[in-house]
Every structure is written in structure tokens, then in C-alpha cells.
Design goal:
By secondary structure, this protein is α+β, with helices and mostly antiparallel strands. The chain has eight helices and 17 strands.
Length: about 350
């Protein structure tokens, strides 16, 4: 648990920075949540429950009862819910007083995405008949159920097929939804995989606001897929992510670092907290370093260095002093080349 360290935090920003600094530890929560349903299924058997009841029984009359195993398995999930509720309250109170909430919002983003990330990975584990290890697909960016027609003409003559669609960084996977009444769950039978580089996106198909198309070129032929979302908002969200991923994958296999957004100059008062951000792309993935006035910066209580999967890099400067004034550079390098972006910070 990260909770004990939170109790030592003196301010809202201390809480946020503590969670941001321990962001990698939340990956353990992610793996736990993915396997939680399997763990609960293992102990659903009455004989197993009886065993746990016997081994956890108090040794002497009057002893405090040992926590029930199902309650124990639920504790990490409840802890995440506690973090979310705490951060929501802190953001609400700080926003009311007109203060900046960006650190708290970053921390909330780290915590709040865990449930849907775990759900995404769990659903990937339910794919059947995929012709390679599922781990090769990585973590999905999005997943959801769509009504799918395999050509635009079919839409007028059939009701379409229900498909579970997974969007990964480099491909789209379509699966047939299979109802498993005995297990009271759905499984997904693999149907087709499309590399993003081989797909042409059609934003409007058949005059339906919720419909969009994927024209897939494969081995000299083109397959037409029309997808219908539950809402226009879902469609727009998928199209946005598809276009961004396609743009990245269209880069050559190897490309030097490129800063898609640059650092900005800023000024602040002594004692305040500021955050410098930029975004870099490149392949192989660039190694990023931060430099102030020619000297390398390391991650410490006053300098929090972070980077996410989208290439966004950030440097948080906490409890500013006059010595923090200067020129800051974010420098990215890979085997193909290097690039940098700089900003001037003035502490008044």
C-alpha cells in the first residue's frame, strides 16, 4: 500500500507529487486487478471456502476474527477507490479557491485509469484462436462492441454482426462475441487483424452519424468494414485515437526524435510549484534527459521527472527558490539522432 506515505504529506501538492513519484508502483495494482476475477473464482468452491474458514478461525475464544479471504482480495480495489475519492475532494476544494490543480489532476489520471486499463487487458485475455501469443498484442488503447458489416452494400440487406473490436498501437483486431452461459461471461473468437498502415479510415458511411468505415488492403484485395457505434461521441473518440496512432505508425521504422510540442518560458514566485511539459516522438523510443544551465537534473523530492506512453515528458519544480531561475533543456536521443527544446524559468 502507498497509503502510509500519504499520511506524512503536509499539503495537497505533496499528496499529488507523492502519487506521481510512485506511478510505476500502480502497475502492480493493474496486474492484480486483471487477475482478481480469476482469484475470486478459485475460492468460490464451497470446499475451498470451508478450508479458509478453518485455517483463519481464532485460536482462542475472544480473539479477534481473521479477515475473510474474499474481503482480503477486495482490499486493493477499495484502496484505489479511496485514492480516487481523496483526489477528487482535493481537486474540488483547490479549484474553489482558484488555485492550480494540475498536479492533483495528473495524480488522479494515474489512479482513475486503472479500472478501465484492467478491464481492457482482461478482455484481451478472453480472445480465443488468436494465431500468436496474446502478449504480443500489448495493451489495448481502446476496446468495445460494435455492429459490423463486411461491405457497405451489406448494410441494406442484413442486420450486421456483433463484434468486439480492439484497437492496439499498431493494429485493429476484430472478434466474434460468444456467449458462454455456463460461465456467465462472454468470450471472443478471433476473426481478423488489420495493421493500421494497411487501413483507410472513412469518417462517414451511409449517411449515418454513428457509422464509420475501415477499408483494409490485404494481399492485393480490399475488404470493406462498416462499424456502427452506440453513439456519435464513441465514434469520434475512436476516430481521434485511430488517426493519431496511424500518424505515428506511418513514420518510418526508424526516425530521430522530434518534439511535437515544445517547452514554454515561465515565471513564478518563490515557494511556488511549476511544471514544464513537452512531447517527443521517435523510433527507437528516445531516451529523455533534463538539463539546467548545462548540468543534468536527477529525480529528487524537488525535481520530479516523468514521462507517459504518449511521449509527453514533464519536469515538476517544487518549492521554488531563486536558484531555480535559469535555462532548462529537455534533450531526447536515440540511435538515429537527437533533438532538444528549451525554456527560460524566472523565479521572482
Amino acid at each position: 500500500s502507498i497509503l502510509p506515505g500519504l499520511r506524512e504529506c503536509a499539503t495537497d501538492d505533496d499528496v499529488a507529487m507523492y502519487l506521481i513519484k510512485h506511478a510505476e508502483h500502480f502497475e502492480k495494482y493493474l496486474h492484480y486487478m486483471v487477475g482478481q476475477s480469476q482469484a475470486e473464482a478459485c475460492i468460490s468452491d464451497k470446499a475451498v471456502q470451508q478450508y479458509f474458514k478453518e485455517v483463519t478461525a481464532p485460536e482462542k475464544p475472544g480473539d479477534a476474527p481473521v479477515i475473510d479471504v474474499l474481503t482480503f482480495l477486495q482490499q486493493p480495489v477499495e484502496r484505489i477507490q479511496t485514492y480516487q475519492a481523496l483526489l477528487k475532494e482535493l481537486i474540488k476544494n483547490k479549484a474553489k479557491s482558484g488555485q492550480s490543480c494540475y498536479l492533483l489532476e495528473d495524480a488522479f489520471s494515474i489512479v482513475s485509469c486503472l479500472p478501465w486499463r484492467s478491464d481492457n487487458l482482461h478482455r484481451v485475455s478472453l480472445i480465443e484462436n488468436y494465431p500468436a501469443p496474446l502478449t504480443a498484442l500489448g495493451e489495448p488503447v481502446r476496446q468495445g462492441v460494435f455492429t459490423v458489416w463486411e461491405s457497405p452494400e451489406m448494410k441494406t440487406t442484413s442486420r450486421g454482426h456483433q463484434r468486439q473490436v480492439f484497437l492496439f498501437k499498431e493494429c485493429i483486431v476484430l472478434c466474434k462475441v460468444k456467449k458462454d452461459t455456463s460461465m456467465n461471461r462472454d468470450t471472443y473468437s478471433f476473426k481478423n487483424k488489420m495493421k493500421l498502415n494497411d487501413v483507410e479510415i472513412k469518417e462517414a458511411v451511409g449517411g449515418e452519424d454513428r457509422s464509420w468505415g475501415l477499408w483494409h488492403e490485404h494481399r492485393g484485395s480490399i475488404r470493406h468494414y462498416t462499424l456502427q457505434s452506440n453513439s456519435t461521441l464513441v465514434k469520434l473518440s475512436w476516430l481521434k485515437d485511430l488517426k493519431e496512432l496511424q500518424q505515428r505508425s506511418s513514420l518510418s521504422n526508424n526516425c530521430p526524435p522530434v518534439f511535437e510540442s515544445l517547452l514554454c518560458d515561465c515565471s513564478a514566485q518563490i515557494g511556488q510549484t511549476i511544471k514544464l511539459t513537452c512531447r517527443v516522438s521517435g523510433f527507437p523510443k528516445p531516451v529523455v534527459s533534463w538539463i539546467k544551465d548545462g548540468l543534468s537534473l536527477e529525480d529528487d523530492p524537488r525535481h520530479i521527472i516523468a514521462a507517459d506512453r504518449t511521449g509527453t515528458c514533464s519536469l515538476v519544480l517544487d518549492c521554488l527558490t531563486a536558484e531555480d531561475s535559469g535555462q532548462y533543456v529537455c534533450y531526447a536521443t536515440n540511435s538515429i539522432g537527437s533533438a532538444g527544446t528549451l525554456a527560460k524559468v524566472v523565479v521572482q
